[in-house]
Hints:
297 residues; alpha/beta; Rossmann fold; two-stranded antiparallel sheet; 10 strands; endoplasmic reticulum; UDP-GlcNAc_transferase; Glyco_trans_28_C; glycosyltransferase
Amino acid sequence: MVNGVNEVEGGGDGASSSGSDTVTAARARMLKRQRIDFSDDGSQAHQTTALPGRRCFVTVGATAGFRSLLEEVSTAGFLQGLAAHGYTILDVQCGPDHAAFQSRVAALSDEDRHGVSVRSFGYTGEMNAYILDCRGEENVRPAGCVISHGGTGTIGEVLGVGAPLIVVANPTLMDNHQLELAESLEERGLAVHGHIGTLVSAIDRIAERITQGTLDALPPYSPPPFPVAAADRVTLFDWMVLTCYPDQLAAQTHLSNLGMAEADFANEQQQLPVAGNGNGPALAVNNQENNGMLQLD
Length: 297
């Protein structure tokens, strides 16, 4: 008996118990994840080791703090939401608020944690390893998710790996520019836009995407070739500028148009006949007027 509930014991003729047939939700999920191999005659040949639980990686970036996100992912309600979908590990990159996060986690009871192991650190040089741990791979690990602030660097890494992604905008940064990015990523189907106060619903939506997209059974990850092909060199930062900063795009387009206009004007001047060469009417040159034409704005 474990925690007052009878364990189901595997036997050659089937499972049996000494009382109630009820098992814990966590045990049921574990049994569901196990793969049973059968011989040609239909009898059980052997049982492989169960896949590990899902992993969630939360990152707030290396510069600014995001305490409201850290506070939510260290609540009993959020951990319960993770456990309901088979998550067993929560890794949190806390930035400058690591000590405050540790204090919150230390105050949680075992019951509050719902079987989820919570690990944290301030900064790391191994971001890609934590992201890869959230990428599903057939017969290796189920898909988890990355919960990220709206930093383009982190988002680019997650999208490149193919791990499920929740983007939570940090409203304290640069005119809330991360909100535009999060909304645009969701519109394009690249990520779930998560909101402070309702992150459990974002985890529910990630679970739907994992099921619909068979993200638990991806092939092994292969890093992209280097150098990157010319057709694929548009970075996430370039895409963000083009989609989320229309004023900047308009300014860049205006400058580009001015440059082309100046080049066209210079070409036209070169094609006009020179004064006094007998090939056509003379070109009157007025330096003051010509300079004024070139000062485009």
